[in-house]
Amino acid sequence: MDKLSVDVLVIGGGIAGASVAAxxxxxxxxxxxxxxxxxxxxxxxxxxxxxxxxxxxxxxRDITAMSSPLFKKAxxxxxxxxxxxxxxxxxxxxxxxxxxxxxxxxxxxxSNLTHMNIEEAQKLVPAIKSQYVSEALFDPDAKDIDVSxxxxxxxxxxxxxxxxxLLSQRVKKIEQIGSHYEVVCDTVTIFCNKIVNAAGAWAxxxxxxxxxxxxxxxxxxxxxxxxxxxxWDYKDWPVVIDCEEEFYIKPETGSIxxxxxxxxxxxPRDVYAEEIDIAIGMDRITAALDFKVKSIQSSxxxxxxxxxxxxxxxxxxxxxKNFFWLAGQGGYGIQTAPYLGKLSSDLILGNTYSQTTxxxxxxxxxxxxRFNK
Length: 373
What we know:
This protein has helices spanning 15-24, 58-78, 97-107, 118-124, 147-160, 203-209, 275-288, 333-349, 357-366; strands at residues 2-11, 30-33, 50-51, 83-85, 88-92, 114-117, 135-139, 143-145, 164-166, 173-177, 180-184, 188-197, 218-227, 239-242, 248-252, 255-259, 264-265, 296-306, 313-316, 323-327. By secondary structure, the protein is α+β, with helices and mostly antiparallel strands. The strands form three sheets. Strands 5, 6, 7, 13, 14, 15, 16, 17 and 18 form a nine-stranded mixed beta sheet that branches. Strands 1, 2, 9, 10, 11, 12, 19 and 20 form an eight-stranded mixed beta sheet that branches. It has two domains: 2-71 and 146-215 and 311-370, 3-Layer(bba) Sandwich (FAD/NAD(P)-binding domain), CATH 3.50.50; 88-140 and 218-306, D-Amino Acid Oxidase, subunit A, domain 2 (D-Amino Acid Oxidase, Chain A, domain 2, 2-Layer Sandwich), CATH 3.30.9. It is elongated. Helix 1 (15-24) packs parallel to helix 5.
C-alpha cells in the first residue's frame, strides 16, 4: 500500500471539498480523497443549482451574499460566466393565498419582488393554466449556476498549486496518533496533521471513524427528471416554483428539469429516482402547466444533507481539535461554496486577520459546538 504525508487531508471531492482544498493549496500541502471514480459524483453532480440570494435561512442568505464577489472573481479569472440570468416565478392556487401572502411578506424584505396576476405571469410562462393559478411572485435576481465550470475551477486551482485529488479511495480507518492522523484508504495510507470532513451524506460516518460524536446529519432524497414538452419554446422562462414548494421546473438547454421537491429521509448511499416520486412530480407539474409530454428523458435523485437546525456545520470538532467539519449544506451547497471554502481555509490555517464582524457572527452560528454542548 502506498504512503503519503500531507498537512491537510480533505475527505470528499464534491464542491465543498474542492473549494476548501483550492483555497488551502497555495499555503499548505493538501490532498483530497474521493471515494468515487470521479469527483462530484453524488450531490454536486446531481444538483439543479441556482444562485438565489433570498433563498434559505438568514445564515444561508448571509453566506450567499458573501459568496457573490467570489463568484465574480472566478468569472474574471476564467473570462467565462458562471452565473446567468434566470429568475424565480412563485405560483399559487386560490386556496394558497395565505401561503403566498406569507411568502411575499418574508421575501419582500430581501428581494426586488413583483406581485403578478395570472395574465402577467402568463407573459413570462405562457404554459401556466388560467384555471390553476390565481397569483404569482416574480424574483428577477435568481440565477443559473454552471456547476461543472465552478467545480472544475476549484479542482484546476488545486492541481495548479501542486495539490492532489485521489479517486476511488474510500476511507477505511482513521487513527489519531498524538496530534497527527493516520488515514487508511483503499490503496493508500495518508499521514496528516488535519482532516477536513467534506464527505456530504457520509460526514457523520467519517466523524465516527475519527472518534467524533455524530452531529445528527440527515440525508434527504430529492427526485429530479427531465422532459421536453413539444408545444412550447421555454428556453427563456424563469424557474417556476409552487409557493409551498410542492414542485418546481427549471428550463435547461433542450429540456425542462422537474421535481416534486421531495425530502425523503434516506441513508448515505447512491440513490436513484423512485417511479412513484417521478409520477407525483409530473402529475403536479402538468396540473399547473399545459405541457404535452410524450416521455421522461431521464431521471435521477440526490441526497441533500441537513444538520438538525438546517444550517451548515463549519469548524473544528469540540474534542478533536484537528478534525474540521464542513458539512450539512443541504440544498445550498453550490451557491454557498465560494465563501464557505474561503472561510474554512482561514479557520484551518488560523487566519483571523481578514475576518469581519459578519464573519465572526457566522463562525459562531456555524460551529459544530452547537450540537455537542
